[in-house]
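User: Before I run my own analysis I want an independent prediction to cross-check against. Here's the chain; please return only the structure tokens and, at the end, one sentence I can use as a sanity check.
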Amino acid sequence: MLKDGCNLLSPDPYYAGSAGFVGSSLEALHGDMSALALPDYVPESVRRSHDGIRNACIYSYFAYDLLTLASAQTFPCLELALRLRIGHQFTGRTTRKGKAMRPAMLAELLEAANAQGLVAADVRSITMIRNMFAHGSDTILNAPMFLEPFRYVTAMIIELFDPAKVAHVP
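Assistant: Structure tokens:
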């Protein structure tokens, strides 16, 4: 529900404890998101997408629905990072009949990055979490439920662009 204009800066009922769960404070949300900044060696477009997610999480204090938006955007951000890092490896692919294949999707990109030693994480679990958001879910999130997968994805993005690994992998 859209908030009344005079209540825009009031905590959402989910965070205020009057509905759903007793949430984090605005300061705690900001602290959590501040700790998850991407380093400058990560491409700007990925950092910008990631920052949008961090801001949506912080501002979910005022509008809880932004937390669901942040969760859903986490995986396109990861896919963008993967495409920038290894997407070129999939260009020009064709079927046996010579037709151009569709671009590699998140699962295939994750598997390739894992096989090349660019990420050490369990890539299957990321795909399952992503599918929950991409195909609709009535899951009620709270900030801690969002935070753990977001930390995991953030660590993967940092690992993907680790300067030591960038120098050794095509």
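Sanity check: The CA atoms of residues 85 and 100 lie 21 Å apart.
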